[in-house]
Specification:
446 residues; ATP-binding; alpha+beta; ATP binding; single chain; aa-tRNA-synth_II; Alpha-Beta Plaits; four-stranded antiparallel sheet; 12 helices; ligase; seven-stranded mixed sheet; binds 3,4-dihydroxyphenylalanine; BirA Bifunctional Protein, domain 2
Length: 446
């Protein structure tokens, strides 16, 4: 079945006996920034080069940094055509090829991959602690409606996460989910009271060793009916908050051992009160997850008026990087056997042995920005050209001249984790980046 209207039928749950910076915490409502207008990803504008950071005077020969992209992918038995998801000429679409190519890879469903190993370890904890009552979903389609991703979990209309700068839009009403919370409401409506949702999530973001535009989250929800808290002496929200904390402290001990923990109050649109759990690990406080008592409005809108619930969400890469000593988030996508062969089913916390360290190569790019310039857009262009060879994009200089024009200089680190890059190859990449930055972002190179 080809999806035409970009909706995915939900897959059945698996057999029952499951920052990056957080998107929603620290952003107290209402966020002042409103969604940006849709951005056209391609442009026919030609450009004169003003200067080149690399010494290369002529366009080097072409060599692709990105592998070819399949035209069709499959998730949960649903076939998704590239043309349905990537539409360069549609101003309401901002999904590039390299993002489409990640749909369907589902690292979280590979039992020998660090992300799958971690997912299974969390499943084990819930199965053991709750007699396998949690229903697990890990094959839900990542293409969801704006309503599912934002409205149904009460994300305010002016929240920054809704902007085209932060989220991948397939069209004005459809996005690549930016969190697994997108499935909360539908699963509540379906009558589930204990569930875990694991999946790939997509966010436009900066480029460095801990940020990648696709990563994996797990969401957990537990609903209580009145008979569960009545007689406990506690009111419903306090009862749920107590149970939540006990459950997640147990999970943290299951994954990290006997660590010190602390709870930090925070804000999420879908929970009240909301908390973050931090653990003291490898000599620093580290955020493990976000959670809270589900907003009553979500429950009443979805047929659970008299109930109370808790929910949590955690980023699997963040935790896997620490547990397996994986130094760069790009490695999770490596198909190099020297990476993949180091992990095996059921072995949580085996320490990754770096197989090589090739030198990075730095190239600077400076330009006069426009009002609509954003760093996420720049990073998107760089990734579009260099793919996973782009290790970091960092602002190293920023000034405004007397005429009020603002200049930014970014340092791009190119590095492969598998081989040495040649000068020619890097010059080619930098040339292409300059060309694309000028064409697509309409900035003036310096
Ligand atoms: N959706 C949140 C994020 O992506 C994570 C999260 C926080 C999920 C709190 C929850 C929750 O269910 O209760 O940043």
């Amino acid at each position: 079945m080809l999806i035409r209207r970009i909706t995915c039928a939900r897959a059945l749950p698996l057999s029952i006996p499951m920052a990056t910076s957080p998107l929603f915490s620290h952003l107290k409502p209402p966020s002042p920034s409103s969604p940006l207008p849709p951005r056209v990803l391609s442009s026919s504008r030609s450009f004169p080069f003003s200067s080149l950071a690399s010494a290369s005077p002529s366009k080097p020969s072409s060599k692709r940094a990105n592998p070819p992209i399949a035209a069709l992918v499959e998730v949960g038995g649903v076939k998704i055509a590239k043309d349905d998801v990537v539409r360069e000429s549609d101003p309401t679409n901002n999904v590039p090829d390299n993002i489409f190519s990640k749909i369907g890879l589902q690292l979280h469903r590979r039992d020998n991959h660090p992300i799958g190993i971690l997912k299974n370890a969390i499943y084990d904890y819930f199965d053991t602690s709750y007699s396998s009552k949690f229903v697990k979903f890990d094959d839900l389609c990542p293409i969801v409606s704006v309503q599912q991703n934002f409205d149904e979990v009460l994300v305010p209309a002016d929240h920054v996460s809704r902007s085209y700068n932060d989220t991948y839009y397939v069209n004005a009403d459809t996005v690549l989910r930016c969190h697994t919370s997108a499935h909360q409401a539908e699963l509540l409506r379906d009558g589930h009271s204990y569930f875990l949702v694991t999946g790939d999530v997509y966010r436009r973001d900066s480029i460095d060793s801990t940020h990648y535009p696709v990563f994996h989250q797990m969401e957990g929800v537990r609903v209580f009916s009145p008979d569960e808290w009545e007689g406990s002496g506690a009111d419903a929200p306090s009862y749920a908050a107590m149970d939540l904390k006990k459950c997640l402290e147990g999970l943290a001990r299951h994954l990290f051992g006997a660590v010190e923990m602390r709870w930090v109050d925070t804000y999420f649109p879908f929970t009240n009160p909301s908390f973050e759990l931090e653990i003291y690990f490898q000599e620093r406080w580290m955020e493990v997850l976000g959670c809270g008592v589900t907003e009553q409005e979500i429950l009443s809108r979805n047929g659970r008026k008299d109930c109370v619930a808790w929910a949590f969400g955690l980023g699997l890469e963040r935790l896997a990087m620490v547990l397996f000593d994986i130094p760069d988030i790009r490695l999770f996508w490596s198909t190099n056997q020297r990476f993949t062969s180091q992990f095996s089913e059921g072995k949580l916390g085996v320490k990754f042995k770096p197989f090589s360290k090739f030198p990075p190569c730095y190239k600077d790019i400076s330009f006069w920005i426009t009002d609509s310039f954003t760093e996420n857009n720049l990073c998107e262009v760089v990734r579009g050209i260099a793919g996973d060879l782009a290790e970091e994009v960092k602002l190293i200089d920023n000034f405004t001249n007397k005429k009020g024009m603002t200049s930014h200089c970014y340092r791009i680190a190119f590095r492969s984790m598998e081989r040495s890059l040649t000068d020619d190859e890097i010059n080619q990449l930098q040339w292409n980046v300059r060309e694309a930055v000028q064409n697509k972002l309409h900035v003036t190179l310096r």
